[in-house]
Amino acid sequence: MTDQKKKIFLFTIIIGSFTVYSLIYYSHVFKDAPYNFKEFKSFVFRYGAKDSMVNYFNSTTGEHDYLNKKDSLIKSHLVLTTADLDSLHKAARSLGFWDFPNYELSADTTSDEGKHVPRYSIEFNYKRKVKHVLFDASFKGPDKLVDANKGMIKKIMDILSNAEERQNKLHK
Q: What are phi and psi of 10, to 5 degrees?
């Protein structure tokens, strides 16, 4: 064997071994991902005071209940597009929502100003799994986890707000 053939052989063995190792090591991650958008069924979001989480959205039924600035309960029908749901799914994936603990609750239910601290319930339903997180705004957990929860809630609120604006424009 010439030196050039030896180098090509060695290079092929090293790259081939690395490729096979990578495929074996990461195959389960891609193959069995339980939270895959193709398996997405529905999304449910609730928030409000601990004892009365009256603000509600369900992507299956389109039911959307919320308190306005005058504390009147508004009931409406809101439809999210596939792009909206995909955006929520991607946000959940990028923020690590699937790894959040199911319960992130605080014993303190009032803020320093005496107001009730909001509680949020986020639920993603898939064919094979359901991920449900209950989060208190006063939760004293790791900063990264609290920030990720707040980021997820902000994303949900933004998408619901945008969908409501889009729907109001269509009805005018």
A: -65, -45
Inter-axis angle of helices 82-95 and 143-171, nearest 10: 170
Mean pLDDT of the chain: 86
pLDDT value, residue 114: 46
Q: What three-state secondary structure class fits 11?
A: helix
User: Where is mean pLDDT largest: 47-51, 128-132, 168-172?
Assistant: 128-132
CA distance 42 to 21: 36
- Asked if 80 and 166 count as a contact pair (C-beta separation under 8 A), the reply is no
pLDDT in tens, 92-111: 988 988 889 999 988 765 55
**Length of the chain measured in residues:** 172
Which pLDDT score is estimated for 55?
A: 92
DSSP-H helix ranges across 32-107:
82-95
Going by their DSSP bridges, the two strands 73-77 and 103-104 should be labelled as unpaired
In the chain, the amino acid numbered 90 is K
Measured distance CA(50)–CA(170) in Å, rounded: 35
Largest CA distance in the chain: 85
- Name the nearest CA neighbour of 144 among 111, 88, 101, 113: 101
**Contact between residue 1 and residue 9 where contact means Cβ atoms under 8 Å apart:** yes
